Amino acid sequence: MSLAHAILGLLQQKERTGYDLKTDCFDQCIAHLWTADQAQIYRTLDKLVEQGLITCTIEIQRDRPNRKVYHVTAAGNAELTRWLQGSHPLPTIRDPLLVQLFFADQLPNEAVIHLLEQQLAARCERLAECSSIELPALGDVSASRQQVMQRLALELVMQREQTYIDWLKTAIAAIASPMTQPIEQS
User: Fold this and answer.
1) How many contiguous H segments (helices) and E segments (strands) does the chain have?
2) Is 49 exposed, middle or buried (0-12, 13-18, 19+ CB in 10 A)?
3) Under-70 pLDDT residues of the chain
4) Which of 2, 10, 128, 179 is the most exposed place for a label (fewest CB within 10 A)?
């Protein structure tokens, strides 16, 4: 997924400033799906303006810097629709923990278990954060179509986190097992 398409989708929902995109969207609304820092967002907004996919209007403000408010153009809507309808290759997930674990045989078991326990705590926290997001449940007839789509995405994120949590517990138990204890060299 490209950051540009995430921004187009967010701007299609509502016109926003770059600051709004960062604080209301990437730090809150879609933080569990996609991350972006302020510099990435502003660089992408500039590129989207150059490409004619969004426009920018400047709102004059007193006692504060002027606001740049971004809007999706017809070309931007068409690009977002094209992207939404296309299939995308499966991503390769870059997970530093898995690379650490791949080479962790040189560490004592206690150090590996500590690393996994830290990750377990972080994953449990993320699952709790996702669980606290207020969206109607699947099957709720009062839910809007947009809420159903958002709930579906959230459900996958929560299932992924739960799967990771279950795997971490299994990994900790496997490493703590007497069978995985290092062989003493004599």
Assistant:
1) 7, 3
2) middle
3) 1, 180-186
4) 179
Question: Do residues 76 and 18 both lie within one domain?
Answer: yes
Which residues, 6+ apart, have CB-to-CB distance to 154 below 8 Å? 32, 130, 133, 135
b/e string for 151-164 if b means 16 or more Cβ within 10 A?
A: beebeebbebbeeb
52: left (phi over 0), alpha (psi -120 to 50) or beta: left
C-beta neighbour count of 11 within 10 angstroms? 26
**In terms of DSSP H, where are the helices of 14-144?**
18-20, 38-50, 74-85, 96-102, 109-131
CATH number at residue 53: 1.10.10.10
Model pLDDT for residues 22-35, shown as the tens digit of each residue: 998 888 888 888 88
Nearest to 4 by CA among 56, 31, 43, 33: 43
Closest CA to 40 of 53, 62, 25: 25
Say which amino acid occupies 104. Answer: A
- For 121-155, write each residue's pLDDT tens digit: 999 999 999 998 888 888 899 999 989 999 999 99
CA 138 remoteness from chain centre: 21
Q: Which residue has the tokens 């703590």?
A: 176
